[in-house]
Amino acid sequence: MNDKKKKPQKLRARLPRGFVDRAAADIRAVDEMTAKIREVYERYGFDPVETPLFEYTDALGKFLPDADRPNEGVFSLQDDDEQWMSLRYDLTAPLARHVAENFNDIQLPYRTYRAGYVFRNEKPGPGRFRQFMQFDADTVGAAGVQADAEMCMMMADTMEALGIKRGDYVIRVNNRKVLDGVLEAIGLGGEENAGARLNVLRAIDKLDKFGPEGVKLLLGPGRKDESGDFTKGAGLNEEQIAKVLFFIGITDYAASAADLASLVAGTSKGAEGVEELNLIGSLVTSAGYGPDRIKIDPSVVRGLEYYTGPVFEAELQFAVTNEKGEKVVFGSVGGGGRYDGLVSRFMGQPVPATGISIGVSRLMTALKNLGKLGMEEVIAPVVVCVMDRDTESLGKYQQFTQTLRHAGIRAEMYQGNKKNFGDQLKYADRRGSPLAIIQGSSEREAGEVQIKDLIEGKRLSGEIEDNTAWREARVAQVSVPEADLVAKVREMLAAQAEDRVRG
Predict the structure, then answer these.
(1) Average of pLDDT values for 273-282?
(2) 307 in a known ligand binding site
(3) Is 213 within a domain?
(4) Residue 471: what pLDDT?
(5) Closest CA to 356 of 172, 102, 143
(6) Dihedral angle computed from the Cα positions of residues 138, 144, 147 and 148, in that order, rounded to the nearest 10 degrees
(7) Count of domains forming the chain
(8) 302 among the known binding-site residues?
(9) What sequence ranges are listed for the domain Aminoacyl-transfer RNA synthetases class-II family profile (predicted)?
(10) In a 3-state reduction of DSSP, which class is residue 372?
(11) Which of 25, 155, 157, 347 has a CA between 20 and 30 Å from the CA of residue 489?
(12) Was 138 annotated as part of a binding site?
């Protein structure tokens, strides 16, 4: 019998599916982007609010999972009092709960913004993650569509603040009431037709993908794709299909508004919806936002089961190459709409609300495609080398490091185990450090420090072939009195910055 103890198995490091680790460059890019979004939201008079990552599961509104499957769609756990809690699915349901809970203490209209992670317990796939960031703004307590028009203008201003030019984006606006009116006008009103209406919405949502002919098939008998797979249609007749196609085919809203009003005349909400769209169009046009920036577009069906009035979508119009190598329009990076029913669930009284939500990760991908991110270069820290390890010397190196930091210069004292000076310079080089600070015993006695220009030194080693060139080149290492350390470091960093601009 083998008495040798089994070696304990090493724990395998593995990232959970659908989640990502974020590196410094991505974190800085998101910070840069969200700072610009925040600036626009603040300018519009919105204030920040923060809600926790967890909510009681029954507060999640339409995302409430089945009672016997509490983890369906959301990540849930049971608290010690046996109540179910879930990681938030979006930022809107927590806001609705916050408003309802603090209704007597908040000033209406309540105008807030917040950025944060949301969680989806769904199957991950390419570009689909279980944790991602959203940046929302909402107005609660304003019933007029002026609040919706403002959201559209704020979204347009946000796109431009991020460097997305006019023509590369458009904010598309529709209204749930108008679409409901069209569906009622073709005989699909009432609870008994809820399933049929959903099928029509799904068909309309495929307009960008399949075009009017494909949507016509999906509204009627069904559509067969190239592979032979058949998608069952909504089963509408020719007259019904013609009316739906007229509605989603409107390209010049002003020219078609009268025909649309005639189509929805007599329906419970259709005419009201047309009036709201007309008012939004008038308000944004008066403020200088033409159809090149904000466009009334009846083909927008963004999550319409969630919304009760105007809906809007921010769409980027430039082409990118997808995973299959095809050129496609980048598409939606966010949107929103009026959701008058969400806060009301807690209150037992009507509470109007409207909001926008920007998908931060998706927008970041778009900005990378446009070369609009990472423009503010982060300089790696100056490295203070550790030449001697006695207490006095270490104290001196620490003093230099803190002096640089207090002067606003990124700096670090070498903390590794390598005693060899060459190895420390290699470390600094791998860090991308611009300068190394060096003081051996002879420099310390003279009260001086050596500053090595690592960027220039690297260039010289590749370019200089003779002594004349060496003498003419910028000196890659200088010696200065300790008191002049900060001034000389600033001067050398400024020279490097100038080189980068010229290069």
Answers:
(1) 94
(2) yes
(3) no
(4) 47
(5) 172
(6) 90
(7) 1
(8) yes
(9) 32-381
(10) coil
(11) 25
(12) yes
